[in-house]
Design goal:
Length: 484
């Protein structure tokens, strides 16, 4: 990127354009082009699971990035299903649905403080969390257990607790996905989801947690690639001045950093292109552009070129880039403020998961149990994070099967004379999973069912456990309750 053709008077413009970008890269060490562009003013990076091996490696990586510039170092660490620090093993912290089920804001604050301490120790200064969506659509394919719940007031109070927890550790919170992704039935990684709600409904439902987070001092807010016709017309909110400038900046009075959701998602690229979407998002009011994991060095070069070209032809005022740079500079200054010492190492994640798990029916007395886990396809937001009981049941037979391939008679024969435990994840969204569980329970009504997603579909099992998430901590808490 440093060979971008600019005149002597354009170097400042180049730095302004580059300063709006959060780029990604593959591997556990930084490529030379990223270090070079940090020297040239690149805004920062977004890290993913493929960038993280362990805390020591991550700390070394962020140290090398910081030696080259003054980057915003961000990642998605929500706890629960969405984790980057523990991408390869599963999170030791339950996610928002579990915390919302407990409904103890002190616990939520402590969990997010622990997450913040871990991030800060690794050199990460911005967490793209918490999720402040009000999950009113049961079949929402992208939010689900990432939300604290479906009640606006509950989501608001826990969003505030999460913001306070993260920021007390010196890690900026990024409250997402504005103006609300909880009422959608489409995944913005794949298409533009629709929120067909009036402005009155938005104010009464979706915007309540964001308003609370702004009042609580959230350092950043992430946009949503959702279309809200009453607000954004035909545009996704990430590209809508009505959403980001008129509503968020004007009506809600927010003056922190606005960060786009990943621009490589098809909700943006299919219609506007990566570089075109970047310019439109900046013009609408975004300060930092999260590019996502797909764009290459060449793509980043093209985006910077397009931003510069847009300032020359009048599509993007230079003043808009200067405004964004000023907000990001204030955020960097906040990063350098003194903080409280990290809290002592604790088991707060497991404590929270234990409090969240709920039991309907008697606790089973298991004899030589067979645990059958019905596989669930990973979502793009979560990735292929391990889940299930295997880490906690080393001496128990755990059978992982694809629902469409399940041999129900074979499973029943294999479970004859043994206790049977059926484990599902968001069964309400997967008819094949429900069919397999129903068929097994018809013969084995004594079986225990463990739901590791949202407990919306509740079969008539002798014992039913809901964990409100599939994090490592959730599985451990359920295994303890089952006594296996």
């Amino acid at each position: 990127m440093s060979d971008f053709t600019v005149g002597p008077g354009d170097r400042g413009l180049y730095r302004l354009a580059a300063g709006t970008l959060l780029v990604a890269f593959r591997g556990t060490t930084s490529p030379e082009w990223v270090l070079r562009e940090l020297e040239n003013g690149l805004g920062g990076v977004t890290l993913f699971g493929f960038n993280v091996a362990d805390p020591v490696q991550l700390a070394a990586l962020t140290k090398s990035l910081r030696a080259a510039g003054d980057p915003v170092v961000s990642l998605d660490e929500e706890g629960g299903d969405v984790t980057r620090l523990a991408y390869h093993v599963g999170s030791p912290y339950p996610g928002n649905a579990a915390l919302g089920a407990v409904d103890d804001t002190g616990l939520t604050r402590d969990v997010y403080r622990a997450i913040g301490d871990e991030l800060a120790a690794c050199g990460v200064n911005l967490d793209m969390a918490p999720d402040a969506d009000v999950n009113t659509a049961d079949d929402n394919p992208v939010i689900g257990t990432r939300a604290f719940g479906s009640d606006s007031a509950l989501v608001a109070r826990h969003t505030v607790a999460a913001v306070h927890g993260l920021q007390s550790a010196g890690v900026a919170a990024c409250v997402k996905h504005f103006p609300g992704h909880g009422a959608t039935r489409q995944d913005s990684h794949l298409e533009v989801p629709l929120v067909d709600a009036s402005l009155d409904v938005l104010h009464e439902r979706e915007l309540v947690p964001f308003r609370a987070a702004i009042e609580a001092g959230a350092k950043s807010v992430m946009t949503a690639h959702v279309q809200v016709p009453a607000l954004t017309g035909e545009l996704p909110a990430t590209l809508s001045a009505a959403a980001l400038t008129t509503l968020l900046r004007g009506e809600l009075g927010y003056d922190g950093v606005v960060i786009s959701d990943a621009l490589d998602m098809r909700a943006i690229t299919d219609t506007y292109g990566l570089a075109g979407g970047a310019v439109l998002s900046l013009a609408a009011g975004t300060d930092l552009l999260c590019l996502g994991p797909l764009p290459t060095e060449e793509d980043v070069r093209a985006i910077i070129s397009e931003i510069v070209a847009a300032t020359r032809d009048g599509r993007l005022p230079v003043a808009r880039l200067e405004e964004a740079a000023g907000r990001v500079a204030r955020l960097r200054a906040w990063f350098g403020e003194p903080r409280q010492a990290p809290a002592a190492e604790s088991t707060i994640g497991l404590t929270a998961a234990r409090r969240a798990v709920s039991l309907t029916g008697p606790a089973p007395v298991l004899a030589d149990p067979l645990v059958v886990e019905l596989e669930t396809p990973p979502t793009i937001a979560v990735g292929d994070v391990p889940w299930g009981f295997a880490p906690w049941l080393p001496e128990t037979e755990v059978l992982r099967v694809r629902p469409q391939d399940a041999d129900v008679p074979g499973i029943l024969e294999h479970a004859a004379g043994r206790s049977l435990v059926l484990v599902v994840k968001d069964a309400h969204r997967y008819p094949d999973s429900r069919s397999v569980v129903t068929a097994l329970l018809a013969v084995r009504p004594d079986a225990a069912v463990v739901e590791m997603g949202l407990p919306i579909w509740r079969p008539a099992a002798a014992t039913y456990l809901a964990t409100y998430g599939a994090a490592r901590a959730n599985a451990q808490a359920a295994a303890e309750l089952l006594g296996v």
